[in-house]
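agent: user wants the structure for Olfactory receptor from Mustela putorius furo. delegating to structure tool.
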Amino acid sequence: MTTSNITTTHPAFFLLVGIPGLEYLHVWISIPFCFAYTLALLGNCTLLFIIRADAALHEPMYLFLAMLATIDLVLSSTTLPKMLAVFWFRDREISFYGCLVQMFFLHSFSIMESAVLLAMAFDRYVAICKPLHYTTVLTGPLITKIGMAAVARAVTLMTPLPFLLKRFHYCRGPMIAHCYCEHMAVVRLACGDTRFNNIYGIAVAMFIVVLDLLFVILSYIFILRAVLQLASQEARYKAFGTCVSHIGAILSTYTPVVISSVMHRVARQAAPHVHILLAIFYLLFPPMINPIIYGVKTKQIRDHVFSLFRRKNA
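agent: tool returned. relaying tokens verbatim.
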């Protein structure tokens, strides 16, 4: 910790431990993480390229998908490169302000991802429950406003965190028992009264997950009711089939969150590496699996990918 300047109460840098208790396996653990990150980069960049190149995909559903792909790219790239540097090169040092920036991007884009999934549920609700009004409701300006609202909400909720952490004196050393700068992992190193940080972090997480998930569930209740009222089984199957990809994205995002939350409460005595591996799974799994879900289940994207391969082999 710096002592030359008495006005500096925070360390010049932190040291990321990695996965406590599994340091001897870092190189082996990094292999599936690197593979998943590579898939996430390739998959999401391919999605963005296809949506940008094909004018037929410049529709609300695909514009929201482009937002989701961008968020997944930022989320994984915020943490994985540094995490792999820790695993491969033992480059554990991260500056204090670099840590705050990583934390801000990590939590902000997690909140944005939840907002975009909610927007996609609204898109499916309008498409199935009010199909005649779809083009008049989900206009370009409204989609822009939804995107800006998602960014504004995330930035507003996360901006206080760096300032709250900057005011603490860190007397418990610079070692962060994590692979990246997660809010509560940094708070544990701080001295003084950290109750407000604890309450604020839990309140924001509960507010985002509960509120967004509640509206997503409500959207699907209305969607299910509308689908069941359709006359033919084929029409019901076709209508609900358009929601399969979005449901898969919701499950890939929220399932790790729920599992991690349950583990923190039910298995408090579990080894720290269990919780950290779950946290990494939450960061890596959605960016890796979402492009696969949409690529397999969305006919327009699948056809575009096949046409690219046909052109290449021609």
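agent: one observation worth passing along. The first strand starts at residue 13 and ends at 16.
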